[in-house]
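hey can u run this one w/ S-adenosylmethionine bound, need the structure tokens asap thx
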Amino acid sequence: MKILILRLGHRAGRDPRISTHCGLVARALGANGIVYSGERDRKLLESLKKVMKEWGGSFEVSYEKNYMSLIKNWKGKVAHLTMYGVPVQNVIDRVRKEKNLLVIIGGEKVPPEVYKIADWNVSVTSQPHSEIAALTIFLDRVFKGKELGKKFPEAMKRIVPQKSGKKVIEK
Ligand code: SAM
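ok here u go:
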């Protein structure tokens, strides 16, 4: 299953950490790429690309100003994560059947047209929280926990898990 994340409404001055974490979570938990919309932020894209280079895998990072055209041209289904949507546990079996999935996560305010165009508006609890948490739980439900063992080929750095302390193998 190919999963692309679309992160809406990035604000360069205010959101760099949250937006970076959306990208890191998307990559670590099995998505194939992330597209940022909102304000163009060269530093954000560069810092993520540096992580990809060091830690391996084939995750794509890019920026798209016109997110509606990206959504309209997407060849597959669209899931929009929002606290107003239907509970993730009610739709996830259906979502898992898709080959290509675009997952939209918002920022401060998501325009109504996104709700209308989405095949699924999906909530992770009907409580307000965070795009990072919503994305994490959504991806974990899609992959049923298998993403936890994902391998990242051609990594320059690899962690050897330890009971205590830090061990990193560097190429
Ligand atoms: N009013 C927004 C909404 O519609 O969910 C909350 C904004 S929240 C700070 C930013 C993003 O986090 C949302 O656009 C959504 O993608 C995600 N989010 C927050 N709470 C969520 C929830 N309970 N379920 C799914 N996604 C959520």
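The longest strand covers residues 77-87. anyway lmk if its weird
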